[in-house]
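Continuing the batch. This is chain 6 of the set; chains 1 through 5 are on the previous pages. Same settings as before, nothing changed between runs. Recording input and output for traceability.
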Amino acid sequence: MERWILWISGLLSFCAGALYGWSALIGPVQAAFAVTMAQAGLIFSWAIVSFTAAIIISPTVLTNWSPALRLAAFGGLAAVCVCFAMVSNSYLSFIILFSGGFGAMSGAIYITTLGVASAAKRHKIATPVMVAAFGAGGAVFGPLWRMLATDGWGLNGLLFLVFGLAVASVLLGINAWSTKATITVPRIEPISFAVKQYFGLHFVLIWLVFAFGSFGGLMVLGLASKMMDAAGLGAGLVSVALAGIAIGNTMGRLSVVGFSQIMRVQNCIVVALTLSSLGFVFVLIQSGLTIGLVLIATGYGVIAATVPAITRAVFGSAPFQPIFAIMMTAWGVAGFFAPWVSGSIFDLTGSFNGALWLAAVIIVLCGLTVLWLNLLMRDAQHDVAH
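Output for chain 6:
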């Protein structure tokens, strides 16, 4: 029964991860509401704010319900929000429904499915795989939306996301009502308790690694579709490249399962930064743009899966949800500012070069923070891989 719940939870996480495919909707949004690039980027920024707020709040909501029933509720609400966003007739209503509604439900689904995975018997495998399932949503929905937009679907392409969310939610609801043999998630401690009990330098450094790594990646990936359009790439090549970016993101997340078996899990960040650095070299020298974007996406995926793995290994299962909820504020801060800053730089200069150089500098800061974290863990004899 544990495996069945994990599979369905993974399916819902996959659908919630469609938020990662947002850049493919920039064209339809601009066509529907006549907004600037900065305004289009702001839609994703506000979605990240909603996502992060939900991650903090949702663990304290419906706590008497089973994880499966809570996920069914979150998934159903997500489907409703996306459905109404699809037919919205104004920029403001789209922000409220997509950024606010779907963004929040995506965050609630993400933290709840991670709680289910972290409580599983083989959590070292289940946790990064669940993170990968979320990222895989972008690997499918991003290219799908891009192709549908080329065929004139516009925002109607969101219909496929509504269907996926609805199916996963119904399956979870049926399972929750038909059986009590579900995964038992440890009692969720209040965030205030988690901060008081576990706050320290390790906590701060992991947060900074997540913030810098996410900011550097999202400045590029959040507007990847428009970046390739600005470079003059054809629609077919852009669709293929978006698929490659999403697949790289997903494979980076899955790779943590293997890397964590052969090295300290915090060293997976070093692998991520190496890949990202190579990607920036390709992009900044104006050669191999698509290859560079795929490498950056892969490095970003490794970071996204490594941080929850580090959090679970260092702090344990019981306080995982409240602690990781705080860690996710790093991603929220980066997600709010990165696409907006990147879009604003493009609007001011007509080029993404400034955004790329800024992202590269932030990746360097991430590397310095990882070095500090590694030294601290070595001195404290924290082998978080075992």
